[in-house]
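User: Some background: our group keeps a shared notebook of sequences we're curious about, and every so often someone picks one and asks for a predicted structure to add to the entry. Today it's my turn. The entry only has the sequence so far, pasted here. Could you supply the structure so I can complete it?
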Amino acid sequence: MELIFAIVLASAALLAALDYLFHRAVVRRNQVRAEERARVLVEDAERQGEIRLKEIELEAREKADAVEAAFEQETRKKRADLQAMQRQLEDQERLLERKAALVAQKQTEMEAREVSLAERDTALAARQQELGKPSGSSCARWSPRPAPSRRRS
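Assistant: Of course. Here's the predicted structure to add to the notebook entry:
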């Protein structure tokens, strides 16, 4: 009976060892599966993060491009406005130069007329003296009529 007892005891020890090894293998396998699953989740999260980061970078680039395009458009518009204003100023400057030239020409003509009239008055006074008329004649006292006043409404 001791032999049976020894066999039963050996069998129980063997079964206990097999049970321990089996549970250890199951635990190890579960641990490996859990680690693999965790690794896959981490890699997936990293990929998702990289994708989201690229999306954000793309959105930022698009916004920057839109802002730059708007700035360039505004700059072109302002440049065109400035060029139009410059052309307008140049046109006004040319017009003022023409008006100044006309005023100078009219002033020269007026001065020439004044000289001509003064020469005529001198010649007339000399002729009247030759004819024997006194120098205080009505022609010598002649003065131009004042210009009629212009009413502005």
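Suggested note for the entry: The CA atoms of residues 78 and 84 lie 10 Å apart. The helical segments are 2-131.
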